[in-house]
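Researcher: I'm preparing a figure for a lab meeting and need a structural model of a single chain. I don't have an experimental structure, so a prediction will have to do for now. The sequence is pasted below. Please return the structure as tokens so I can convert it later.
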Amino acid sequence: MNQVISRFTGGEWGSPIKWLPGLFLLIILICMIWGGIRLNADQPFQLVIYGFSTQEEVLTQGIFPAFEQAWEAETGKDLILEGVFGPSGTLSVQITQGAPADVAIFSNQRHIDWLKFGKAVDKNTEQLMIASTPLVILTRPGNPKKISDFADLMQPGIQLLHGDPIGSGVGEWAVLAEYGSAYLDTGEQNTAEAQLEAIWQNVRLLGSSARTTLALFELGAGDALITYEQDAYLAQKRGVPLEVIMPQRTVLARHYAVVIDKNVTSSERPVVESFLAFILSDEGQYILSEYYFRPSTIESELLPSLGYSFTEEDLGGWAQAYDCLIENYWKTKIEPNLELVPAATFRVIGE
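Model: Understood. Here is the structure written out token by token.
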């Protein structure tokens, strides 16, 4: 026993010269780790929000500042929200490939299904419908082509701008509107397909997103454009000379937000959930209505009541509608026959 005791009291551990430097280094390491934890604790939360193109103003000018202020008042901690905007389909591909989004807002539910398939979003995660907007037709002031409905876009001589159904959410919704408006009126698939094909015979330029296509129209391209009501009224507010035509029957585009589970840490989840709850709150919904969205939980005071609107569910849901109308019909029978004008010459369209 005495020999054992002597090993710990008079052996290696008995000489301070040997263990004091190690202890000193250990203390420094602990201080550095603790300092790093405190530094991280003092850093503001930062969330990255991906949104389709027409979300930019309402998020950066309305939702982001209001939520940052509410979060900081409630928690005493700073918050930074960063927005990334683009075509809805393009954003979903980027997120699947590793883009650092914490929350994504898409023009339709199909893009969330794609993220679940790619395991960026858990299959049981609930997507939240935050707002909607119908598809409308934009014309030049005075409506010189006398357009009042989707059927009028079939008349010869009209030069039509259109969102690209490959990648652009508004392009996808517009195909549903052009087909569904005729199909739900007549119940005849052949009539609806004929209207869809005739409209696309007048398409002269494709835009990668709703905002890009509208920008081309603002610059003088084309006679008409199918786009979101929300973006149309926002353009009018900016002073863009155009006329907004509400078709007798049109599709109601429903927009969804979802948590990107693979990117959200446990420490970030409370602020992510609070952000989504804020969007669905009366304050968040009111902000959406100020930017001409039709909120999902309150009434809008800025927009007229809708007439005969329909949703993707009336066409069998997004999976069926996309496969039948875009994958199996538009890509095989319409896209190969498009007569598009080169983008470099878009200024002379409609002259």
